[in-house]
UniProtKB/TrEMBL annotation, chains A, B:
<dbReference type="GO" id="GO:0006355">
    <property type="term" value="P:regulation of DNA-templated transcription"/>
</dbReference>
<dbReference type="InterPro" id="IPR036390">
    <property type="entry name" value="WH_DNA-bd_sf"/>
</dbReference>
<dbReference type="Pfam" id="PF13412">
    <property type="entry name" value="HTH_24"/>
</dbReference>
<keyword id="KW-0805">Transcription regulation</keyword>
<dbReference type="Pfam" id="PF01037">
    <property type="entry name" value="AsnC_trans_reg"/>
</dbReference>
<feature type="domain" description="HTH asnC-type">
    <location>
        <begin position="5"/>
        <end position="66"/>
    </location>
</feature>
<dbReference type="InterPro" id="IPR019888">
    <property type="entry name" value="Tscrpt_reg_AsnC-like"/>
</dbReference>
<keyword id="KW-0238">DNA-binding</keyword>
<dbReference type="InterPro" id="IPR011991">
    <property type="entry name" value="ArsR-like_HTH"/>
</dbReference>
<dbReference type="InterPro" id="IPR000485">
    <property type="entry name" value="AsnC-type_HTH_dom"/>
</dbReference>
<dbReference type="GO" id="GO:0005829">
    <property type="term" value="C:cytosol"/>
</dbReference>
<dbReference type="InterPro" id="IPR036388">
    <property type="entry name" value="WH-like_DNA-bd_sf"/>
</dbReference>
<dbReference type="GO" id="GO:0043565">
    <property type="term" value="F:sequence-specific DNA binding"/>
</dbReference>
<keyword id="KW-0804">Transcription</keyword>
<protein>
    <submittedName>
        <fullName>Lrp/AsnC family transcriptional regulator</fullName>
    </submittedName>
</protein>
<dbReference type="InterPro" id="IPR011008">
    <property type="entry name" value="Dimeric_a/b-barrel"/>
</dbReference>
<dbReference type="InterPro" id="IPR019887">
    <property type="entry name" value="Tscrpt_reg_AsnC/Lrp_C"/>
</dbReference>
Amino acid sequence: MAAELDKTDFKILKLLQENGRITNLLLSQEIGLSPAPTLERVRKLEMSGYIKSYHALVDEEKLGLGIKTFIQVQLDFHKNNTIQIFLDEVNQIKEVTECHHVTGQADFLLKVYVNDIKSYERLIMDKISKISVVKTFQTMMIMSTTKKEPIVPLEY
Amino acid sequence: MAAELDKTDFKILKLLQENGRITNLLLSQEIGLSPAPTLERVRKLEMSGYIKSYHALVDEEKLGLGIKTFIQVQLDFHKNNTIQIFLDEVNQIKEVTECHHVTGQADFLLKVYVNDIKSYERLIMDKISKISVVKTFQTMMIMSTTKKEPIVPLEY
DNA sequence: AACTTTTTTAGAATAAAATTTGGTAATTAA
DNA sequence: TTAATTACCAAATTTTATTCTAAAAAAGTT
């Protein structure tokens, strides 16, 4: 397998990011190849891990997930496996959809989806603040999201 | 069009979030219906906007996007259309893949992808800090991401 | 409770797309 | 230059999506 991707591969990645359900036929026409080698390239991109997976994007608000927040978490590093303890706990909370280890005042940035304020309170009271290594946390409620590209900016 | 979704619809949403390229045949087997009504339900979910779109998820690191950050931005509200000015500028920056209007000390939280530190510096110097209404900003570099569900937590 | 209307479904037929196959041109390595 | 590898296309085959029809189920009405 060639290590490098060529322009055609980048085009494929761009198109599949934009429309994950484009047919192989259409895709082949867009990139200027016939269906067979197009499919072969897509399979290679999947096998080699450049394409990790495919997902439907749903409308969260329509589904009643009214509250979206980011939570900045600061940890208490008394124990030497503080981070692992935190991650083990956080990974079990289904409302937490993202968990990033970051630089700056906070140690972690979490993204959280809940139905309403009551659910948010329960999440904070019963789950986040119960994690032993959590020192402090600050909530950023998302009032609106004006940009959310499901697409990563690629060259070419 | 019925306003409410039933259990079968939620199952479909869950499965399509997990695998956006599942065939209609497989999907129908998973939810226990025949292909025809399954497809009809999927189309309804698409038409009514519960499903917004489909996307391939790519491996950012393999593609050379080595730097991912969140930037907290505080605005200077001297003008009365401060927010609109900010949004207009930010929407033109392709490295900014997310833009959230949030509560707390910061006004906006941005997610940014760049190739390397040099690119990051250019982004900051030439773009972010050039926006007239930006008062201050703070960077959180993402060192690692331990959880990133492309899936929204649904009931049922 | 019987009837009507509406909705949902399965199954068959058709259309479209994916996938495989075989062979050829182009590129790379020896 | 030759051999080997790779990438490609065109056509055949298989699989899947889609449409259509009619039956069943559910909901509402008299």
